[in-house]
């Protein structure tokens, strides 16, 4: 699992508003890994209306607990976390020679709610537009799948 984080691999530190630093506990890392596994298995990122509340409910934890795990271990907020998956899905579709969809169709098939949101997010993460990427453009980012 590419996004799995183990206690041996991680020494995550979160800086709170008071500039105190805290180590992330094992249960938070385990919750993050459980969320990653669940989201990847069910491909929940393809649902444009997925919410952190729905995922938390399925995992039987509070929204706060899940949000904290994503923020501290994943170093992202929920929307950035989900959009990483969506952008990766879009990149696969855009580079696939067997897929001949419009940019708009790829946006929806990747879990985005609109073409505008897709274009904006793709350019933010990758550094070029989806159309440029599909034409063989190179990533201008350090984006990691």
What does it look like?
- The chain is mainly alpha-helical and 145 residues long.
- It has 2 domains: 13-75, no CATH class; 86-134, Homeodomain-like (Arc Repressor Mutant, subunit A, Orthogonal Bundle), CATH 1.10.10.60.
- The protein contains 7 helices and 2 strands, in the order E-E-H-H-H-H-H-H-H.
- The chain has helices at 26-42, 52-59, 63-73, 78-95, 103-109, 115-126, 130-134, and strands at 13-15, 21-23.
- It has a two-stranded antiparallel sheet with strand order 1-2.
- It starts with 12 loop residues before the first strand and ends in an 11-residue tail after the last helix.
Into which percentage range does the β-strand content fall?
under 5%
**Please, how many domains?**
2
Q: How would you describe the oligomerization state of the chains in this entry?
A: single chain
Name the average pLDDT. 84
Strands, count:
2
Low-confidence spans: pLDDT under 50, at least 5 residues?
Answer: 6-21
- Give the ordered list of helices and strands: EEHHHHHHH
Order of adjacent strands in the largest pleated sheet? 1-2
End-to-end distance, in Å? 11 Å
Number of helices: 7
Helical content class: 40-55%
Our Rg estimate from Cα atoms comes to 16 Å
Shape type: elongated
Query: Structural class, from helix and strand content?
Result: mainly alpha
Q: How is the main sheet built?
A: 2 strands, antiparallel
């Amino acid at each position: 699992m590419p996004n799995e984080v183990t206690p041996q691999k991680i020494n995550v530190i979160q800086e709170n508003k008071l500039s105190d630093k805290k180590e992330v506990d094992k249960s938070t890392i385990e919750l993050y890994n459980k969320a990653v596994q669940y989201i990847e298995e069910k491909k929940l990122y393809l649902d444009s209306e997925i919410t952190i509340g729905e995922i938390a409910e399925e995992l039987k934890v509070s929204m706060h607990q899940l949000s904290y795990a994503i923020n501290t271990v994943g170093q992202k907020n929920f929307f950035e976390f989900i959009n990483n998956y969506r952008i990766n899905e879009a990149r696969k579709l855009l580079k696939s020679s067997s897929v001949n969809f419009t940019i708009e169709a790829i946006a929806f098939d990747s879990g985005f709610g609109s073409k505008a949101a897709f274009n904006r997010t793709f350019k933010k993460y990758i550094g070029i537009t989806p159309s440029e990427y599909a034409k063989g453009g190179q990533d201008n980012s350090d984006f990691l799948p």
